[in-house]
């Protein structure tokens, strides 16, 4: 499992999460930031600094946010 960035990031794209990630697994996409599910170590540092509370542990996502898991996987497959 991993952390996932959801819809609130799309309006904000603040980027504090990138600065605190100890494994550099967060990259900026065209519309939001994405967490690489293969590199994330689930430390949670990103969740504490997100100004719009857009980052959640995958198991805690609401059903309507599950699309962001696939969106992140697709982003890193294309990258």
Note poorly predicted spans.
none
Structural category is alpha+beta
The main sheet comes to: 2 strands, antiparallel
Helix content: 25-40%
Taken as a percent bin, the fraction of beta residues is 15-25%
Explain the overall architecture.
With about 80 residues, this protein is an alpha+beta fold. It has one domain: Alpha-Beta Plaits (2-Layer Sandwich), CATH 3.30.70.20. Helix content is about 35%, strand content about 15%. The protein is built from 4 helices and 4 strands; from the N terminus they run βααββαβα. Strands 1-4 form a two-stranded antiparallel ribbon. Strands 2-3 form a two-stranded antiparallel sheet. A hairpin with a 4-residue loop joins β2 (about 25-30) and β3 (about 35). It starts with a strand and ends with a helix.
A few lines on this structure:
GO terms for molecular function: 4 iron, 4 sulfur cluster binding; electron transfer activity; metal ion binding. With 79 residues, the chain is an alpha+beta fold.
Which characteristics define this entry?
single chain; 79 residues; alpha+beta; Alpha-Beta Plaits; two-stranded antiparallel sheet; 4 strands; 34% helix
Helices and strands, with pairings:
Blueprint: E1 3-5, H1 8-12, H2 16-20, E2 26-28, E3 33-35, H3 45-49, E4 55-57, H4 67-78
Antiparallel strand pairs: 1-4, 2-3
């Amino acid at each position: 499992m991993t952390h996932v960035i959801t819809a609130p990031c799309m309006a904000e794209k603040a980027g504090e999460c990138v600065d605190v990630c100890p494994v550099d697994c967060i990259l900026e996409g065209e519309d939001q930031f994405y967490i690489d599910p293969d590199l994330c170590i689930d430390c949670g540092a990103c969740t504490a600094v997100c100004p719009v509370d857009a980052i959640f542990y995958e198991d805690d996502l609401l059903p309507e946010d599950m699309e962001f898991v696939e969106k992140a996987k697709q982003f890193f497959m294309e990258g």
